[in-house]
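Letters spell out the chain; backbone shape is given numerically. Both lines appear below:
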Amino acid sequence: MSEETDKLKERLAELETDVASLRQTRLPRGTRRRSSATLFGLPLLDVAVGPDPERGEMRGHARGVIAIGDVATGIFALGGVAFGGVAIGGLAFGGLAFGGAAVGLVALGGAAVGGVAVGGGAAGYYYACGGGAVGEHVLSAARQDPEAVRFFGQWLPEWLL
């Protein structure tokens, strides 16, 4: 029994050493940068990427004229989730939205929803162009509305029409 007790005490000492070293390990820290220059009361540039344990944030939310972050809100927004006049992101919402999934007045993405939508799956209120497109005027493999051909002909190369 004392041999087992000695092994347990030895193992306990090893675990205490491991726990002490883990407590000293620092969590990865993200980047936070904000310009002092402002426009319309917003910082000209705000960058917030990654976790910030001191603030209790798991992801950064950038807010500025130009916003770059895990979540970005700005006139120009670039992020995993982006909200802005011009929004670029995995999930983008804006006047002009580019993303894996995009929602906007003009939306371009894998899945696009907007007044004008271009994407693999596109739902456009006025115009839609894509593999699976729905809308008032549609340009797709299954349907080539003359008004959609005229509209998208201004923007797309002829070989795509």
